[in-house]
Amino acid sequence: MKLYICIISLLVFYSNNFSQNNYHTGLTEQLNTANNTTNDVYNFKTESITWTEDISLRTLYSSTYKSNDGQVKAVFSKKPVNYYNEKNELIPISALLTEENDRWIAKQQPFPTTLYKDASFSLSVGNNQNIYFGKNIHINNRATQNSFEFTGNEITLYNIVTGIDKQLIFRENSVKYNYVVNNRMSVNANQNLIFYEEIILPQGYKITEDKNHGQLTGNAWSGDLLVLNNKNEVVCTIFAPLCYDANNNYIIAGYKIKKTDNKYQLELIVPDSWINNSARVFPVVIDPLINGPTAQWTGGYIPSCILPATYADSILVTIPAAVTVTGLYVTSSFYADPFTTATMGQGSMYFSTNCANSQTFTVTGPNANLPGTAYLDSFNLYSPLTCCFPESCSPTTFYLRMHLGRTGPGTGCNTTYIRHDPFTTQWPFKAVVYGRTAEPYNNQWTTPQNPICANTCTVQATAFVRYGVAPYTFSHPWTNTVVTQGINNGCNTGATNYQFTLNIPNCPIYCDQNYTSLTIPPPIITDACGTIVSGIPAITRPVKIAPDISVNYDSIICSAENYTITLSSCVNNANINWGGNYTSGTGNIQDNVVNSGTTTNTISYSAYSEINGCYSDTINFNLYIEPQPQAAFNYLPNPVIVNVPVIFSDNSTIHTGTAYAWNWNFGDSTSATIQNPSHTYTQPGTYNVCFALTTNEGCLDTICQSITVIPAEIVAPNVITPNNDGENDLLVFSFLEFYPNNELLIFNRWGTLLYQTKNYKNDWDGSKYSDGTYYYILKIIDTDKIYNGFFELLK
Dihedral sign, CA of 380, 384, 385, 388? Predict the structure, then answer.
């Protein structure tokens, strides 16, 4: 069955959300909801979105698109949105005019329309035949000029005669045009306003009155005209010319037709009694519409029923797989026939699915009492109409039903008064489903922006995801943790987020002046369908340099030795803090510890460096305080005799460690570096012998003592004068004090033993003996030396 689409006349009111309009009459009204509330519309920036159609899903009544930002859009309509071309390919319908040679053609539709340079136009009726309109236009016998301006598919001719503009609007298989009378015209009394033009038909075609839509008013036809082909089939409709002023007062003007061969002269007559009435408020619009043949539309008319009954018709809608529905944008309309007593305010429509019913849409306000088309333009009804459909990894198909009712006139269900009309090509019963695959939102992937130290090896970052099909699986290359979360409910974005605690690779980093920013790769997020969320950028976190700390010291210190432990950092001006030995401080450590015991004393220290709130690792180190060795030595023989080797023996005490070095200074400018040296003095005298012992820990002790080196023989006296004059008062043997282990015997001249003693101490004065010559024997025990001789005792 062939039906014909008409496009609504001049739009009076417009809303992004919903609308009410009259159409055949040219008076259009946006539909109101029953409670006069608006509905939220999913907002997106179309200028930044590129849509690509999935041609494999294209049908006559539907098209599916995917965007570069993860959206899916599916269009379903009661009228075709695509058509079959001559190659039997499904092609999207478009009324876009493109320039070709000396004309502009909208050829991407079943029946192309064409605009010519003289502002005339044609409609295709198939078989390479066209109907031509707009030739030789006159207004009240005045010729018109035909220069024009383009704005998309709208063409405007200004001042075709003084004070009158003409608008052409190219639509699918149709052209709507308006004459706009801007000011009251100076015309003769009782003179109608008459627009004249020629129409050229193919051979055998004719124009006739539509007896079902119009009436004879005087000698003019106030109604629609039909163009019939040579088989008496309707191939074009010239709709009744509606005239309305700025206050929406209107009449239906009349047509007169004259035929010459295949040319028709069409007069459009606006009665003087209306156009020149003092009540007219200009501008006045004269609004005919010419519609050509259409592609097949299986939906046809939708009747209305007397409320509370409604008539319902439906379209099959499919929610694409793996998306969250973000919009179900419904477009539809109903027509209050101006050739009956019906008005737009008597109509009512709503929509339903298995989930719920929408609000009711009606016309209110001044235009409610007018006939025409009330339209709903892209109203978002996804809530409540899709809320019972959870997101799915498979397509979800449902019927979207349109319910049409009226409060009057007439009775029962019919298309006579108020109906959904197939001539409404601009507002057919249509649904556009918007959905979005899984995507990030909000900040997408974020981490706090306070700087972290370069030796901080964990960082937190939060991933945000919504749409697609919940639940979502979160993972990241910097952690082994895998989390699945999110709830799948209809009319729910599924929005959720997860905060990761991530382990930073190659951490910690110290002392790198160039390391000022950490780049954190994006997470891996998949929805329940396995869709991987794309487009998440890497993020950065500011990084502060982390200092290190190093220590330079000798770990083994000898008791009472002053020591310095040098602490340093790679970062200039870093603060260095330390503690140990019951104290603390900054910078280097300087101290002195006495270990009076016999074992090693261990002192523990810890230290760290800090700059701008970043701390190095704390280092712990020990200092070992060793007790000093106690140097000691002895020597033999004692006393030391000139030219007799002396054996010096190390007799030191070492508490920890072992002897490492020996240093002997014999006091006669000679030295030795072995433990037990031998030394021979060549001159008698007193010598200061010093012995220094060093342990393997580096601890040193030195001892010095004087030794006397005596001649090789004892010198005996030859005279004693015990008179207390301080000279020769005693029998004194020189160097005898170095031989305390001795025995002395004294005899008189006759060999009589007078005195015998051991350990003689040079203290015998012979005071009780008379003068004379005496004989002595001095034995040095432990040696083979015996001294004997005579001395004189003189008193």
Answer: positive
